[in-house]
Amino acid sequence: MNQPKIDTSPKVSDEVRKTTCYMCACRCGINVHMKDGKVAYIEGNRDHPVNKGVLCAKGSAGIMQVNAPSRLRKPLRRVGPRGSGEFREIEWDEAISTAVGWLNELHETAPQKLAFFTGRDQSQSFTSFWAQNFGTPNYAAHGGFCSVNMAAGGIYTMGGAFWEFGQPDWDHTKLFMLFGVAEDHDSNPIKMGLGKIKARGARVIGVNPIRSGYNAVADDWVGITPGTDGLFILSLIHVLMKAGKIDLDYLSRYTNAPVLVNASDGPEKGLFLRDADGKPLVIDRVTGEPTAFDKPGVRPDLSATYEKGGVTHRPVFHLMADKYLNDEHAPDAVAERCGIPAKRIRAIAAEIARVAFDEAIELDQEWTDFRGETHSKMIGRPVSFHAMRGISAHANGFHTCRALHVLQILLGTVEVPGGFRFKPPYPKPVEAHPTPHGDRRPGRPLEGPHLGFPRGPADLLLDEIGNAQRIDKAFTWENPMSAHGLMHMVISNAAAGDPYKIDTLFMYMANMSWNSSMNTKGVMEMLTAKTEDGKYVIPNIIYSDAYSSEMVAYADLILPDTTYLERHDCISLLDRPICEADAAADAIRWPVIEPDRDVRGFQSVLVELANRMSLPGFTNEDGSPKWKDYADYIVNHQRKPGIGPLAGFRGENGDKEGRGEVNPDQLNRYIENGGFYVAHIPDGADYYKPWNTAYQDWAVGMGIYDSPQPYLFQLYSEPMRKFQLAAEGHGDRQPPENLRQRIKDTMDPLPIWYETDQQGNEGFTINALTQRPMAMYHSWGTQNAWLRQLHGRNPLYVPTKLMRKHDLQDGDWAKVSSPHGEITVPVMEMAALNDNTVWTWNAIGKRKGAWALQNDAPEATKGFLLNHLIHELLPPKGDGMRWANSDPVTGQAAWFDLKVKLEKAAPPSDAESQPEFNALESPVGTGPKDLAWKVGK
């Protein structure tokens, strides 16, 4: 018989181009296989330090992202009313000239009237540099509504935090606890790490109201009541301290537990005792005298007090014992509120203690600490933790994040074998970070970066009469330590003219008219609101995105961005690098394909805008532009001599790392190396980084520090105490009367827990949450032809108890209401769920007319958002004030404090989720019913 000839090994590709994925924030290495100059398929790069070849569904589906029908094709100018989606296509020269016309006068006369806020981009060191040189105080990225509590809580406590700042010691940990981690963050590294530790029998405990993803594969699931994680953590601290299961040697050497605190009543109460050089003092066990914490040979005493001038000074450890040994933190006192039996809290604490102390490990590695003492071994306590937005997005989230770090530190599990490890450029003490800058200087740049870490009231951004300098009211008495700004308050404040009116809102990749805003309907109304004379309240809106998102319809000028395979990006040590605990690493993206549309990379557009306006920082002394585009900037910009956006292949010959002269061929060297660069930390410098002289010296050589910066972990936060002192009536700068008590209550220098402001609304008693699915990343996924098949719609998941109470079955409909609004949506039962919590996937629901989806697409008919139930302001308190729905310390958006009421409902007449909105006019039309193409022969 004649058998058909089948090619069982077809030619896969003509060429492989290596770059960095952008389908989520993991920044994995990818191999892009090319045929006939087009993308054939995408796989993981096995040599890459982040993913080592592993690639998730999102990464593989990147091919559908760069071919999505929703891609914008040309610059657009609005011709219909805002919100209609009616545009005309224009040329880039008109687009740039229009933007310059709106911006240039502001730069010269009133830079604060520009509000420039970016979404989930990964070039924030560059966008902030642009805004700083424009001179506007109004810049931030999306961290204020994402996870600023996690970042700020970690940096103020220990000089770093989870995810991009650090990771568990996957090679040595024996007990791993996750708090509030959904599946989208750090996805591939966590999956790889979980596989590694479970393969050798390590135990995993997941603390989350919802058992999905990582929590589904955990050995133990703790279905905690949302917003009570801090209460649970402080109870664990209580049990461990009471049992003496804390690492006293670690506390005395590496933390401020022995630092002396003024215990008097008066303007110095709660502040550290310092020497003439400003260094905090401890009592030396050998001499019994107060001594600088870093003096060679000092042995800090955790118990000794000190009298000076009639004032008693007590070590921080005394204050911690007073607070956390109090019975209010006992398991029996917190169990009901946490939804965790007291017996189980004690059992978890006992397991943590057993692993930390009975299974301690030693590495035969000598190292020398910052006091000059040489240690023959590295002692490890193999308990590690990881947390993310689930504990961060509450109005008590900052203290909860701090509490988790204090728990780690008490156990001695930070920067030791088996514990939590920092990724370069962290650790960095607060003192190594800038303070915020917001001065308004027409025609001139700000004197420093917008965002930073206040050390006390003197660093607040208030004008001469006490009003906010920034449109989002960041760094004010309302949220003093708002290190990432408050992006969720920008449009609301601008619409209200509070604290002042703006002229131009300029946003990048921030879907604020849909899933990235609280009060979605209200925000749409704010964006279209007009004054009595018929002009828009926000006169000009410029928006840049690669896709036809819901936000496009509300802008006046659209600057279409490229997709991630069509542009240069820089994943920099100055920003959000791809480092691992054992290495400093950074990466690039580069145009592996050329756009088939008239679009430009947003960062290069910013360079052109800067050049047209001759912005300082972008302009040479002779008036010529410093850089022609973003790639030119990446190579030739120097933040300080020898330090640029990329650390690898520096110097004339490309043989220097960290510090070195500009290398004109640097981008090509990165491309040759797979799109990344890695500099490994030397053996013996890889643990105890904040105190290890070998690491400190290596970090200086890499340009991470200018000089060694050893420091103590801050169990007790003196900056917070300074704000509290001001509220108590001390100092030149004090809060307004209506905020005094809140500052006193919430700016406690030791982590605390308190109920959030959304408790107690009559009838609204059920917790409502969202999570990101593993196969999606924010809005982008639901236009992706492959990923849509995984999550084309989202039901409301309801626990068995509430399903029975309300006589609900799978597929029934329910009305879900809050003090702000209501939705009517389909429900499904979920047993592995906190029994007073409902939840759904985030950002699956789409508005008709957006993302090139058909109007009958399941995302637009059955998909929905909980955002319609959430307001950016809290319910009125009767005092006439606008209280933000945010953490009072940092301004973090309190997405997860939402409380709702649940009622069975009849299906809507059209069987579509409610509320419904009119379909937008699409500037790109709708995609074909079937999306298919063939690359190559």
UniProtKB/TrEMBL annotation:
<dbReference type="GO" id="GO:0046872">
    <property type="term" value="F:metal ion binding"/>
</dbReference>
<protein>
    <submittedName>
        <fullName>Tetrathionate reductase subunit A</fullName>
        <ecNumber>1.8.-.-</ecNumber>
    </submittedName>
</protein>
<dbReference type="Pfam" id="PF01568">
    <property type="entry name" value="Molydop_binding"/>
</dbReference>
<keyword id="KW-0411">Iron-sulfur</keyword>
<comment type="similarity">
    <text>Belongs to the prokaryotic molybdopterin-containing oxidoreductase family.</text>
</comment>
<dbReference type="InterPro" id="IPR006657">
    <property type="entry name" value="MoPterin_dinucl-bd_dom"/>
</dbReference>
<keyword id="KW-0004">4Fe-4S</keyword>
<keyword id="KW-0479">Metal-binding</keyword>
<dbReference type="InterPro" id="IPR006656">
    <property type="entry name" value="Mopterin_OxRdtase"/>
</dbReference>
<dbReference type="GO" id="GO:0051539">
    <property type="term" value="F:4 iron, 4 sulfur cluster binding"/>
</dbReference>
<feature type="compositionally biased region" description="Basic and acidic residues">
    <location>
        <begin position="430"/>
        <end position="444"/>
    </location>
</feature>
<feature type="domain" description="4Fe-4S Mo/W bis-MGD-type">
    <location>
        <begin position="14"/>
        <end position="70"/>
    </location>
</feature>
<dbReference type="GO" id="GO:0043546">
    <property type="term" value="F:molybdopterin cofactor binding"/>
</dbReference>
<keyword id="KW-0560">Oxidoreductase</keyword>
<dbReference type="InterPro" id="IPR006963">
    <property type="entry name" value="Mopterin_OxRdtase_4Fe-4S_dom"/>
</dbReference>
<feature type="region of interest" description="Disordered">
    <location>
        <begin position="906"/>
        <end position="937"/>
    </location>
</feature>
<keyword id="KW-0408">Iron</keyword>
<dbReference type="Pfam" id="PF00384">
    <property type="entry name" value="Molybdopterin"/>
</dbReference>
<dbReference type="GO" id="GO:0030313">
    <property type="term" value="C:cell envelope"/>
</dbReference>
<dbReference type="Pfam" id="PF04879">
    <property type="entry name" value="Molybdop_Fe4S4"/>
</dbReference>
<feature type="region of interest" description="Disordered">
    <location>
        <begin position="426"/>
        <end position="447"/>
    </location>
</feature>
<dbReference type="InterPro" id="IPR009010">
    <property type="entry name" value="Asp_de-COase-like_dom_sf"/>
</dbReference>
<dbReference type="GO" id="GO:0016491">
    <property type="term" value="F:oxidoreductase activity"/>
</dbReference>
